[in-house]
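Kelch-like protein 42 (Branchiostoma belcheri), 459 aa
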Amino acid sequence: MATNTTDPGAGDMVTIVVDKKTFKVKKRTLVEKSEFFAAMFNSGMKETTQNAAVLRNVSAGVFRDLVAFLDTGKLRCEIGAELLTAAAFLQMRDVIEHCIRHVDVTNCIEFLSVAETHYLPELEEAVSKHLAENFLDVISSKTFEHLPKDLIDSVVNRRHAPKRYLFAIGSYDDSYKERSDVPRVSHLFDDVTQQWRTGCELPPSLCTHACGVAVLHNYIFVVGGFSSADCHQMQQAAACYDPITDTWRELPCMNQSRAHFVLVPHQDYLYALGGCMSFPYQGNSVKKLLSSVEAYSLRTRAWVRAASIPMETAQPCGTSCRGHVYTTVVRPTDELLIRYDPEEDIWEDVGVVPYMRFVQCMASWKEKLYLLGLSDLVSGIVRDFQSYDVMARQWTKLHKPITGQYFDGCVVMGTALYLVSSCGTQRCDLKSGEWNCHTLPPFPGSGFAHAQVLHVVVT
């Protein structure tokens, strides 16, 4: 018989038999820390008069660890499903709360199973909260492979706060930190108040000149570009911002340094398309256009090469729609819409864009692509913008062309298409086709505006 005596000098002791092993425990400790034992010893049953009980459904080893925790507040073993199940059965709140504070990627599945079986909603909430706040670590862990799809969907949905904003950052030269016109913060546009407000601060060492920006699972990714506005040196940096925890973290750099490229989120990948690179040659800085494509996998935390775009191209536009990644390439006489099939790792021709564009951008909503751009860099004349239905394979004009002011990028938020630049913010209702071109304030930052949609809790 194994005996565990917590305090031999104490008079109020009870005998608990577990798996034929006997434990001497303070009665007060059990009654105060376990609703199960409180009910037992206050019931008037024989356990009350004999100060003894036989405990089933719990192993001796686990009971020993639980009693030690009740005395010291520390566990002598790893928190596992068996211990948590026993704590739930014995209704030991201190142990359950301890487990809630120690939820991690390795134990979340076991904890969730116990929480569902024994109805521990606070533990379910803790697991869901942990998975949402640490989703980048979760998705790259072995645990992710065993998470049910409905739980993953629930966690991803949880990462999206009820309120969404346009999130935009501008280009700046990191060497000019004291200039008042250099944006050191991001900006958020509220579609209800129709005003811009200050967002998160950017890492001081991160230059956003000609970088790629994308949002995936409500994380903002900033990748590549130049290290300063002189465009001589490529930036060897990549970072990710989590609006839930308001933190930045470093990411692996691309295998191919590039700037003036487009970063397209699709499923659990980020696709970096085309762009250019700068390298020194005979005392000068030479730019080389790129056709290469690489993808960053959130699962493996690594960049891998993908099929190249058919032509070298700088400042491409791109978006994801209905299982494919879309971009365009400009040929001598026309502009061609192409799409990438991630399953086959191939690019396919979709069709010729009705007219060639400059200063172009692209967005998607449901089954439609929206291709926007100026037709003339000098005059700024704007022709009708085009939409392409990827299911019907048809081109149509937007209902009403906008004014000819310059814009940097476009993004869909809800049922509206926004054009964003320091010249103005313009909005098109995609259901009615009506434009609001003159009443919305411009992006308050300086330089090229990278606009995305981010769900943020702000006060």
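The chain has a mean pLDDT of 87. Residues 60-72 form the longest helix (13 residues). ok done for today
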